[in-house]
Specification:
Helix content: 40-55%
Shape: elongated
Distance between the termini: 36 Å
Structural class: alpha/beta
Strand order of the largest sheet: 3-2-1-4-5
Strand content: 5-15%
Largest sheet: 5 strands, mixed
Radius of gyration: 31 Å
Order of helices and strands: HHHHHHHHHEEEHEEHHHHHH
Length: 486
């Protein structure tokens, strides 16, 4: 899994604009929530605000009066001041400084009252999460995107590893719930502030802390692929023994990105949309085994894969000799990465109507290649369904947007391993969403074919072409002679 250089990332969320790890500017956007109209709580808040303003104005008036007295005495006595007069002036100046300190303290107290959300008190904090965990199971799954047992296990993991700790007002469980509520519903901090009765600064701080905690444990959630042939392949006559050496699928994922103007040209795709390109790999258990986010949307998928393979720091799980990943037509067919044939039908939408049956070995190979490799589309579809924040361009720093992709994939794997059978989303498998996403993906591939195969053929590509031809013609021969299901 690629974690990049995100350990030194900015800790603060930004409400407008973002930047990468080079151009990020630290800052705090302080905003005072507006009071809702009507009710007793807004009335109390107005009284507090009025009282705070009165305190500040009174203190400033006293400080100004002391300055005037000190200036008048200094002018009156001039250079002939006696010791007693000097003491009086020194006393006035000292009193002036004390009044300024008091004025500052009053102003800070006033700001703390105004920045608190309505209804905030020790008795109201934590009640929302408590009621949620004691309520119906469906409500907890809807809000936290996982069941209660997994939520407590995740929170306990962060506490035991020392990645998160209880504060005076916010427990670790509430910090995790804040993070899951934001990424699980793509909600803004203002909404979460009202729900948990905490200030915007507190919500932002705990969001970043939990994001860092998830990244810290994410390496344990990404495991290399199993080398044995998966049971789904063994049990299918259409796939076995042809794809017995396949260990996973690789694809490029385009996510909407929020960037400052100076960085936008690099991240525009062919349609002018700002996107970050993410290299993802998954196994046939719908688990992600590798994720590398943060690439410019204008970069081709094949170039990203080559860059990752050339960088040993990425720790990409390379396929051993004789094993391979499936890749789509945006990648070069090379040793360890088997792509479909160019110039032949590939997308499932192309095998409809009068020409349903495959016409040759290339058609048949591409069709079964697509049927097996769509596991990554199903995985991505479930990931976006569970964490809708990935469907939009969140208004955070670009480094945070990168880290969110790593964190959500790690949580996806955590839920799959701990509750893959009972989880509501994995049980459904998201087949309908995957099919819809697959058709649009087929159209995007057609636009990028012209960028492929610009390099001369290498020995590794010759080996891959030979393996692909062997599989395709064996598959076609069996299909024609035994009339197997296609």
């Amino acid at each position: 899994m690629m974690s990049g250089d995100g350990d030194d990332d900015d800790d603060e969320l930004s409400s407008g604009g973002s930047g990468d790890e080079v151009h990020v500017i630290n800052g705090h956007n302080k905003r005072i929530p507006t009071a809702p109209s009507g009710g007793s709580v807004p009335s109390r808040r107005r009284n507090r605000k009025a009282g705070g303003v009165a305190i500040v104005e009174a203190m400033l008036e006293l400080a100004a009066a002391s300055k005037m007295r000190a200036a008048a005495l200094t002018k009156k006595n001039g250079d002939n001041l006696q010791d007693s007069s000097t003491s009086s002036i020194d006393f006035d100046i000292e009193l002036d400084e004390m009044e300024l300190v008091a004025a500052a303290a009053g102003y800070l107290y006033y700001q703390s009252l105004v920045n608190q959300p309505p209804g905030t008190s020790p008795s109201t904090r934590g009640t929302y999460l408590k009621d949620l965990l004691q309520g119906p199971v469906e409500d907890c799954r809807e809000v936290l995107r996982m069941d209660k047992r997994l939520f407590h296990k995740l929170s306990d993991t962060f506490r035991e590893k020392g990645l998160l700790r209880d504060t005076i007002t916010v427990l670790v469980e509430e910090q995790v719930a804040i993070f899951l509520s934001i990424i699980g519903h793509n909600q803004r901090i203002r909404v979460i502030q009202e729900r948990f009765h905490l200030s915007c600064e507190t919500i932002s701080r705990h969001f970043n802390n939990v994001l860092k905690a998830v990244k810290a444990v994410s390496r344990g959630f990404f495991q290399p692929p199993v080398l044995e042939t998966h049971e789904d392949i063994v049990s299918s006559k259409r796939l076995y023994p042809y794809f017995k050496d396949c260990i996973g699928v690789i694809d490029g994922l385009k996510l909407l990105a929020n960037l400052p103007i100076k960085d936008q040209p690099r991240f525009q795709n062919k349609k002018g949309i700002l996107t970050q390109n993410v290299l993802v790999a998954c196994n046939f258990d719908l688990e992600f085994i590798f994720v590398c986010p943060g690439w410019e949307g204008s970069i081709n998928d094949s170039r990203i894969l080559r860059a990752v393979l050339d960088d040993p720091n990425q720790n990409f799980p390379r396929p051993p000799k004789g094993k391979y990943y499936l890749v789509d037509r945006n990648y070069t067919n090379t040793e360890g990465f088997i792509a479909p044939y160019q110039g032949a039908r590939y997308g499932l939408h192309e095998y409809r109507g009068a020409r349903q049956m495959p016409q040759n070995a290339h058609d048949l190979f591409n069709h079964r290649h697509m049927c097996l490799s769509n596991v990554i589309q199903r995985s991505v579809s479930m990931l976006k369904t569970r964490f809708p924040i990935l469907k939009s361009a969140p208004p955070y720093h670009f480094q945070v947007q990168r880290d969110l992709m790593i964190a959500t994939c790690a949580l996806h794997n955590f839920i799959k391993r701990e509750d893959g059978v009972g989880d509501w989303l994995f049980a459904a498998e998201g087949k309908e969403a995957a099919a819809a996403e697959e058709e649009s993906r087929g159209e995007e591939e057609e636009e990028e074919l012209e960028l492929l195969h610009m390099d001369s053929t290498t020995p590794r590509e010759l080996v891959a072409d030979s393996l692909r031809d062997s599989i395709a013609f064996t598959m076609w021969d069996d299909f024609m002679n035994k009339w197997e299901e296609w």
